[in-house]
Task: inverse folding
């Protein structure tokens, strides 16, 4: 498969790498956690951080989903680092929701359980939602 041609300049890639470092440091992430979330290798994360390349849209989408980072901020520096006021550094996000040892689906189940519990959802409905996540169906 032919690799798509990069359209960003070296300066843009360097600026992206600096913002990604700031995000990683703020969230206290390990490169492995970022790699697992983005479904890329640790070497690819190193290239992003060094400003040698930028991630594809699907990688960015995974980071937005898993960490609520603002993709526009990562790419351009415009706006806030996080998408909403609820997004916060790692110390307020349970470790199991970002654990590199779990699959993305397992992390999603933990996040779903926490959020639904915070919203007051009955336990049986939470269990049904988790079952839907496992089966890949809408809750």
Result:
């Amino acid at each position: 498969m032919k690799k798509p041609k990069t359209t960003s300049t070296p300066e843009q890639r360097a600026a992206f790498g600096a913002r990604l470092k700031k995000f990683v440091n703020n969230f206290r992430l390990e490169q492995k956690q970022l790699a697992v979330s983005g479904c890329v290798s640790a070497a690819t994360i190193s290239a992003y951080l060094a400003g040698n390349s930028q991630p594809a849209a699907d990688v960015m989408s995974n980071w937005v989903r898993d960490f609520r980072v603002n993709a526009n901020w990562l790419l351009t520096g415009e706006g806030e680092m996080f998408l909403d006021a609820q997004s916060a550094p790692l110390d307020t996000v349970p470790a199991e929701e970002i654990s590199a040892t779990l699959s993305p689906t397992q992390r999603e189940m933990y996040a779903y359980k926490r959020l639904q519990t915070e919203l007051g959802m009955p336990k049986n409905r939470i269990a049904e939602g988790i079952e839907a996540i496992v089966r890949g169906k809408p809750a």
In short: The helical segments are 10-27, 31-38, 42-50, 57-67, 71-76, 104-118, 123-135. The chain has a mean pLDDT of 80. Residues 115 and 130 are 12 Å apart (CA to CA).
